[in-house]
Amino acid sequence: MSVAPHFQRVALIGFGLIGGSIARAAKLQGLASEIVTTARSEKTRARVAELGIVDHVVATNVEAVKDADLVILCIPVGACGPVAQEIAAHLKPGAIISDVGSVKGAIVRDMAPHLPQGIHFVPAHPVAGTEHSGPDSGFAELFINRWCILTPPEGVDAAAVDRLRAFWAALGAKVEIMTPDHHDLVLAITSHLPHLIAYTIVGTADELQQVTESEVIKFSAGGFRDFTRIAASDPTMWRDVFLANKEAVLEMLGTFNEDLAKLTRAIRRGDGEALFDHFTRTRAIRRGIVEIGQDSAAPDFGRPHPPLTKQ
Ligand code: NAP
């Protein structure tokens, strides 16, 4: 078990689901003497101040990073390059700079060229989230028992990597290190493709609504509603993910289309054995996820069911 690190000043650029959750958990764990965050609009700044989680909420990213020894960009992937450029000259020498973006190759490509010598760049991705966004959506327990993947570029200071690893461990996460390309390939199948499928099926059903007279919503408990949770995820975040991880997503989509064609053929040919074998294999995958503690074993995702009252 690593010792929890202590930072004098942590700057969180962006106070949405992830930034807000880091702030809440870091505060609870006493990981920083001071936490400062940015919020672009007057309204969000007022709300963050009202929540009382961070010590300072400021309007500009430059102001936030002043004297910070840990800076974490908690903003959409597409905004990370421009923000790195904006803050680069204002970073404290020796500071660790990180992010939480869902794509890593593009983050390294877009941020690294702007960062001066003496700054330790350790990109990160906490594989944890919900479909909610904004300053009220975060919660301190979000990272407990979830993975946080670090993708440090070659040659980065090992002590800085260790400090960030210990920071995430103190937030409750299990930490793993991999290359940005490997991360992007793994996440393309485990996260990005499922989101694309959910966005597609919900869109298709929405178009069918006109034909089915709102029955899509009425009978959604048949499976559809589980896709709608994923498809309710933040549009800006997911636009950036697909633009930034284009190659890996297209590769996985190719494999997916081939497998979909195989199942389509099995249905057309009435090949029950092929369907049964396939569904048996996928059921075992679900059990495996529950077994390693990455989801609850409760049926129907633990949704509450009202009691049946006697008529
Ligand atoms: P979110 O709740 O929408 O929050 C994003 C925050 O970024 C908002 O506070 C937004 O401010 C701010 N922002 C956007 N552009 C900015 C800029 N140029 N300068 C300063 N602030 C800016 O999003 P989130 O879910 O926390 O996602 C943040 C990052 O975490 C993304 O890169 C995403 O890929 C990654 N991530 C998300 C999840 C997930 O499930 N949601 C999981 C793991 C990783 P305004 O309110 O003023 O627009």
UniProtKB/TrEMBL annotation:
Organism: Bradyrhizobium iriomotense
PROSITE patterns named among the record's database cross-references: PDH_ADH
Keywords, ordered alphabetically: Oxidoreductase
InterPro entries from the UniProt entry: 6-PGluconate_DH-like_C_sf (IPR008927), NAD(P)-bd_dom_sf (IPR036291), PDH_C (IPR046825), PDH_N (IPR046826), Preph/Arog_dehydrog (IPR050812), Prephen_DH (IPR003099)
Gene transcribed to yield this protein: tyrC
Protein name: Cyclohexadienyl dehydrogenase
Pfam families in UniProt: PDH_C, PDH_N
Superkingdom of origin organism: Bacteria
Taxonomy of the source species: Bacteria, Pseudomonadati, Pseudomonadota, Alphaproteobacteria, Hyphomicrobiales
SUPFAM superfamilies: 6-phosphogluconate dehydrogenase C-terminal domain-like, NAD(P)-binding Rossmann-fold domains
Domain Prephenate/arogenate dehydrogenase: residue ranges: 8-297
Cited NCBIfam families: PRK07502.1
